[in-house]
Amino acid sequence: MRWYWIDRFIEFESGRRAKAVKAVSLAEEHLHDHFPGYPVMPHPLIIEGVAQTGGLLVAEYNAFVEKVILAKISKAEFHGDAVPGDILTYTTSIEYIKKDGAMIVGTVDRGEERFGSMEMVFAHLQTGHEDRNLYEPGTFLKMMRMLGAYDVGHAADGGPLVEPAHLSV
Amino acid sequence: MPTKEEIFEKIQAALVDALGVDEDEVVPEATLVGDLGAESIDFLDIVFRLEKGFDISIPRGELFPEDILTNAEYIQDGKLTEVGLAEVRKRMPFADLDEFAKNPAVQDFGNLLTVADMCRFVEAKLAAAE
Predict the structure, then answer these.
(1) Preferred mutation among A121, A122, A125 to probe B, highest tally of B CBs within 10 A
(2) CATH number of A8-167
(3) What is the pLDDT at residue A136?
């Protein structure tokens, strides 16, 4: 999967909060069509980045055993446009998590400027789908490593975030 | 235990946030699906907000027993059977089913739940927890 809409985690507190950065670049081809001569990062891709930040936070809570899907964007508000050269910070925190899924809140900041805010619901795919692998084994581990989650992350007890043994590749 | 008014206000706020409706649309007689436009995934959102707001646990299927519709014993010719209706009454004691019972068509089942039903459901959960 190459659908990465965050570049790096800068904080990852297991079960609580994750913060990621996204550097907007003119090397992203879609910006040349959105819009020709006036590149603006589409808001839905910012939402996707926040969903990836929060979704990995939710999935990590259960050691990536639950199949986490983005079920609903309850709210999304933006107060401006992101343009090439911008560094966006996505902060997500778990409001509520249980067997069926989780609710998160997310914010988007550009420097000191609060740029967007949202609420999302994630669902854990229910029983009856155990045989359905949504991802190659190890996908999440590679993703978490590449995004630096284990470099900056903390487990719930305050110690370093560790890779789940069952995902090791 | 919170008063009925407090329960209603909290449910109203949860529905405004979950469904993006105006506060004055959330009246006791409004149906979740027909009047407030709730879709199936919204029920997960609503249940999370109720659980968090009232510190209660709502197992899947308790507020809305959708599994009834997939049980052949309860459905015949697009309507709930007597047994099916009895099961719905048992599973949804908080819902006013008198009108629905006159013509229990499957396509109307999804639109049964009202805001008032939801208030009674939460009241019963809170009372049971005391």
Answers:
(1) A121
(2) 3.10.129.10
(3) 76
Whichever domain contains B6, its CATH number is 1.10.1200.10
Do A121 and B51 lie within an 8 Å CB cutoff?
no
Co-location of B1 and B55 in the same domain = yes
Active site (catalytic) residues of A: 34
Taking CB atoms and an 8 Å cutoff, what residues of chain B touch A101?
A: 44, 48
Say whether A91 sits in a helix, a strand or coil: strand
Strands (E), chain B: 75-76, 79-80
Number of domains in chain B: 2
**Alpha-carbon distance A72 to B118, whole Å?**
21
Judged by phi (left if over 0) then psi (alpha if -120 to 50, else beta), residue A158 lies in: left
3-state DSSP call for residue A59? helix
Amino acid at position A150, single letter: Y
B122 and B76 co-located in one domain: no
Confidence category of residue B130, pLDDT binned at 50, 70, 90: confident
Q: What is the span of the domain harbouring residue B32?
A: 1-59+113-130
pLDDT score, position B52: 95
**DSSP letter, residue B109:** H
Q: Which of A72, A98, A126 is opposite residue B45, by nearest beta carbon?
A: A72
CA B52 to chain A, closest CA, distance in angstroms equals: 7
What is the residue-averaged pLDDT of chain A?
93
Please report the ipTM that was assigned to this predicted complex.
Answer: 0.85
